[in-house]
Amino acid sequence: MFRLNVRPLAGVLVLLLLVGIMSCVDNRYDLDRDIDMTISVGGDYLSIPGGSTDTTYLSKIITEGDLLVTDAATHEYQLARRGLVNVEPTSVGTFDIGEISSSGFHPVVIVGGGSAVGRGSVEKEVDMQGSFSQTVFGIDEALMEVGDVGAGVPAKLSIAFAFSGSLNYQSVIARNLHVELPYFFVVRACDETKGELRGNTLVLDGVVLSSGNNDSFATVLEVDGYKFGDAAGNGKKVDKANSSIEIDGEVNVSGSVITVFDGNLDANTSLSFAPSVVLDAMTVNKVTGIIQPTIEVEPTNIGLDDIPDFLKDDATRLEVTNPVVAFGTENKLDTPVEFDVTLVSHRNGKTAPLATVTVDDIEIDAGCITAIILSRLGKSGYADAEHVKNVKVEDINNLWERIPDYITVDISPSVTNPNYYTVELDRGYDMLAGYDVVIPLSFESGLNIVYNDSICDLNTDFSDLDQVDFDQVGLQFTAVSTIPLQLELKPENVVVKDIYGQQIEGIKVTADGRKIAESTDGTTPVESRFAVVFTSAEAGVLSRVDRICFKVTAVPGQALNVPLRDNQWIQMSKINLNVPGGVKVDLN
C-alpha cells in the first residue's frame, strides 16, 4: 500500500494562516473572492517512494492442487492426473462334447466251417475300420479355429470286443492286435487299462479277449482332450453360422486273434467278434486355437476442471513442449491385444469438442504389464524397454492448447492374432488398465497465458488527495525475475474500480510498452523497468480509485522449453508513485 502523506501540505496551510494572523488585515478584502488561493506542491514531479516488495516465489503465485503439482526432485510444475480405465473381464464360453460312439464296425467271423479232431485252435487275421464323428454345437463366437481342447475331468474311453456264434470254445486270445484310435485323441492309460498303450494305439498281445460262452472283453483309457493341430490352418474351422465344429476320425483294428476249442467243427459252427469304441461326454475347459475375443472398455473421462486460475482464461493458449499420456495395462491373455484410442477434449459444456486426437494400432504385449507412452516427441521419462513403448503423437498438444474441463478416452481393443494361443474357458480375464497424464509446464512459442490479479485498498492512499487537484498518476517499478516467461500488461487489460467494486469511467490507462523480461534459463535473475500511467480529465476521479484489476499476459519470449519451477521468483523493487507536474492545493 502506498500512502501519500498530506501533512506537509497542511503545514504550508498553517504557515500561511499564521502569516495572515500576524499581519494587518483589511476586513474589506475578501480572500476567497479577490485572491487565488491555489498553490502548487512538488515541482515537476510529486514522487512518493514505495520501496520494494518481498521476493515472491512461483509457489506463492501458483497454488498447487489435485491437478497442478510439482516434481519433488526437479521442482518443475506439472499438470498431472491419473486414474483407472474400466475394462470388462474378457471370457470365452465353455462347451460340451457329447458321448461319441464308433460306427461302421460289423461282426467279423473268426472261426467257421471245416472240421478238427481233439483239441484245436484257429488263428484269424483281422483288419477292420470304423468311424468316429460328431457335430459339436455351442462354440463361443471368439473361437475361429480350434487346435486342441482340454477337459477339466478326463473322459473315459471304453474299448470292447463282443463275441457271438455257435462255437463251443475255450478262449480267444489276441496276438499283436492293434486298436488304432483317432489321431486327435489326447489319451493315456489308467489303472483299468489292459494291454499296452503306444501313442494313440492300444496293443493287445497275449491278452485273453474271451473265456468262452461268448463273454465280451472291455478295457478303459482316459482322454484328456482333443488335439486337431498345433498351428493355424491345421485345426477345426468353426462354422460361424452354426457355431459348431465337426469331429471326424477313424478307428482301425488290425492283427490276429486265436480261438482255442475242443471237438469237431462243421459247416454250421462259427464264432464272430465285433469291436466298439465309446468316449464319454466331455466338458471342455481349455482351448488352443485362433481365438479373437471381444474386449469391452467403458469410455473414460479424465477430469481437468480444477485447473489453476492462471490457466482458466478463455484467452489462455498452451504450446507444451512434450505432454505425455501414459496407459498401463496388465494383459493376462496369452496373446497381444491391439487397440485404437481416441482422445477428445471438451470445455464449458459445449458439445463440439475442442480437439480430437486419434492413435491407431497400439499393441499390448501378451501375458504381462505393458506401458504405452503417448507423447509429442516420442520420448519421455519412461525409457524404452521390452514392455515400455514410446509412441510419437505430433498433434497431442492440440488437446491442451486450451485447457479443457475434461478429456474423453475411447479405447477400442481387439485381438487379431492369427496364430494359436490358449485360453481357459469361462474364466474372466481381467485387464487392469490405468492412465497417467503429465503435462510439464515448459512451453514453445505458441504459449499465451493470462494471469489475473489486482492491486487493492488504494483508496486509503488516494483519498488523502481528495482536496488536491491532479489529473495523472504514474506507477513505476523495476521487476527482477527468474521466471522463464515474459510478462506484459496491456492497457486494455486494466480495469479501475472504486471502494464499492464499481468500475470508474473516465480513466485512461497507458503503459510504456516494455515487457518484464524472462530469465532464459529459469535461474539467472533479469531486471526490467516498467511503468503504467492513469489519467483523468475529471477532477477528483483519481482520488476515488480503490482497486486496479489487471490481466498480465505471460509469453515465452526466448526461453523456450524451460520448465516452470516452484522456486523461480519475481521481486518488484524501486517502486514509486508519481504525480507529473506536482499537485495543486486549493485553499480558497
From TrEMBL:
It comes from the Bacteria. PROSITE patterns: PROKAR_LIPOPROTEIN. This is DUF4493 domain-containing protein. It comes from Bacteroides gallinaceum.
